[in-house]
Structure formats: structure tokens, C-alpha cells
């Protein structure tokens, strides 16, 4: 076991836990944002630099601070480590820089993009970025591709998080897509646009943090915030069958896997559930999907309030507020 | 007993004079008020012959703008509809096909776009929400009617004709006009 302090909150975690996972065990505001790390995909993380944190003391044995900011998603904790996330102004300043880098070549076509409203990059840029760009050069552009007949690839929007290639590696048996070329020219591709017909290939839509991989059956159908998300399940021999239906009236517009509070899918679903059952009668509806209050999707969205859960949540928040110690630099708005 | 609020008035029964009993002061007072209004500036105008001046930022009949090349600016992003407090705006979107680049500016466009003018409260939030400078409220009036059917304005009434553009430059703030001068921003290309 290792004892770590993250933003003044102490927690004991198992050896080999990363800083990000330790922060997630505490929860709340101190969790670093993550764009490329995905808890259910092995080896993911360490690419986007969104989760950089300051390690103020390396360990109990060697309490020197680490010289540079470290990516929290792939740095394992050590006993006596002291981590600063939102209490360190350098971290917050660096995060603005990371947003700027991620958006260098991003087309900012949110009004067109189907991911808008549930996009990690949108949230990340909104919470941590600045609203202006200093980039004046032409943005890098690619042609749009079809990956199979159900997935559309907009390479322009890609931030090269490699999550989809890990899906191809780890969930599907025949890997047929990966990242080609290097540096600025790197792009996700399949060999000669070979169709991906694995049973779980559709999950790369869900793991994509941006709108680079989108569902063609939902393409331009409706904005996400005008649809009504419902929890539903069905008996599926291939997968757990637990999904979210995005509906409008009695029409099922889109089926996705269930994402947790960090927008990560714990139980992947098969392509049959995702594409072939767009009928309310195929599903057992459990009730409205829980949507975070701050999300644009929550407008006009009603769900049953679980009073016990709400009370526990309020208590947890209060406890967090008490334990929160922020230094002066962060209390004044930057 | 003394009143608590101190606002009560003691009513005195006063004998009225003969003139007062004939309502003469009251009638004369009324006539004076009427006479005074003959010489005051009139608050109404004779409408169809004379029209009032519109404010530069008058919020009337909406317009869906086209760009310099005549392509529709609207991409059906739905931000106007989500910001609309009266929920007057509905739309469906479609994908632009090859060869339609001169009709629609972006790869997605509004196949239908409807504003229910009976619901609309002309608050201008749609104009504020629009990221593409597509929708503007103009100084045109929405005409009245006896029926309700004609008040759902579709694209035929909202999109400006290519040969008869509607000027909205008066509505743009100095900050917007300054921003538009910078051609290096991809937004202005």
C-alpha cells in the first residue's frame, strides 16, 4: 500500500496504482482531465498530456520534487508522494497550453460535428482553455473516409489518442486498422479502406473522445441534446446488452454503450446491438439515463431523483469542501 | 383610539354649495383636461400613410443569410433552437451532396427550418447563439393574419433571395466588424 497526498487530500492506494486512478478514488474536482487514457483499454494513456500534474515530493524515501510535470495517467504512485493538480498554478497554465496544442489542427466545426455536446475535447477546451487561438497557418486537412459502412472517419478532428487502435487491438481479433505515417502527417487508417467487420468494431465510436469516428447511421440525424437518452437492455448472446438508447419520440436514433462519469465504457457492446436493433420493441427500457446537470444534454431531460443517492452525494460534496485546501494563487481567478 | 398605521383619514360631513351640488366644478375640470389635450403633441400616428422610424437593432422578421457566393450559411447546428426560450424553432439537417457546394456553405445544411411566429417572442437569442452568422432579426414586420396556419415560416420565407439580399450591417457591433477585417482567421475565409 502507498499513501499519497493529492491536493492536500490523503489516500491510501494499492501499489502500482497510477496518480490518475488514485485521484479518481478521491473523486471531485481534483481528478485530472484525460483525453487519451481509458481505464478499460490496456496501455492507453500518456499521449495527450491533458492530465499533467506536479509531483511536489517524489516519495517518502526521496522527497525531492520531480523536475518536470508528469502525466498522471501513466505515473505510478509511491509511498509518501505529494501531488498537486488544481492547487498548482503551473499545472493550470500548462493545461491551457495543452488545449492550444490539441486545437492547433482541429477544424472547430462543432456546429457540424455529431459529437458536439458530448465531446471530451469540447469540455476540456471549455474548462481549461482560452477562447482565442494564436495559430495563423493553414490547418492540416485530410479527406473523409468510411471505415466500413457504419463508421465515418474525419481525420481532421482526430487528436491521435490511439484509443481506437487499442479497441482494434484488444477487443477485436483481426486488427485491420492503425496509425500510419509520423508526426504531423500521422493519421488513423485501414489498409486500402478495408472494411472493418469485427463484431465489436463499433466501440471505436464510443471510445473516440472527439468527433473523428462517428456513427454513420446517426450521421446528421439529430443534435444530441434534442434526443432523449434511455437506459435499456436486451438478451444478447455476444455482449452484456446493456446500452443507452438515444431516442426522439418513438424512434431510436442511436444506440451506444453506457459511459461512466469519466466518459469511459466499462461494458462494450456488439455491433448487432449498436446498429441492428433500432426499434423500441427490441429493448427493455429501464428508465431515463442519468445526465450530468452541467451537460447541454440535460436540458429538458427529466429523470427520477434517487433521494438516498442524492443525500449521499451532497454529504460527499460537503466532506470534500471541508477537506479542500486551496492556496491563494488558485483562489483568485486567473 | 389612535390609529396604528396613522394613515386613516377622518371623514367630515361637509355641506356642498349649490354649484357643487350641480357638479359644475367637476364638469369644468373635466372639460379643461379635454381642452388641454387638443394642444398637446399627438402620441399616435396615422399608420399606413406615416410610418415610425425603426431602431437599428429592431427585432422583427428573421432572415437566414447567404454568404458572398450565395450559399446558405446555416448548418443546422441547433444552437438557435436550444437557446430559444419559446421553443419556436425546429429543423432537420441533411448532408450536402457533391455539386451542391454553391448552395450550402458547409457539409451539413438545414433541409427544413421552421420558426413558429406565434410562439416567437422576438428576443433575439437565436441571433446571439448562432455561430455561423446565419440568422438575424431584421426591421421587417411579421404580417398579421386571421388564420394560424400561415405563421409557421419555412425556409421559403426565411432564407434571403440571392438577388435581393437583406442588409444586416446595422445590427453588427463594432467588435464584430473589427473581427471581420482579419482575413487570417479561418472563420472569415
TrEMBL record, chain A:
Transmembrane segments: none annotated. Pfam families: Fer2_4, Fer4_Nqo3, NADH-G_4Fe-4S_3. Residues 2-89 form the 2Fe-2S ferredoxin-type domain. Keywords: 4Fe-4S, Iron, Iron-sulfur, Metal-binding. Residues 90-129 form the 4Fe-4S His(Cys)3-ligated-type domain. The keyword Iron-sulfur applies. Its cofactor is [2Fe-2S] cluster; [4Fe-4S] cluster. SMART domains: NADH-G_4Fe-4S_3. This is (2Fe-2S)-binding protein. It comes from Chryseosolibacter indicus. The lineage of its organism: Bacteria, Pseudomonadati, Bacteroidota, Cytophagia, Cytophagales.
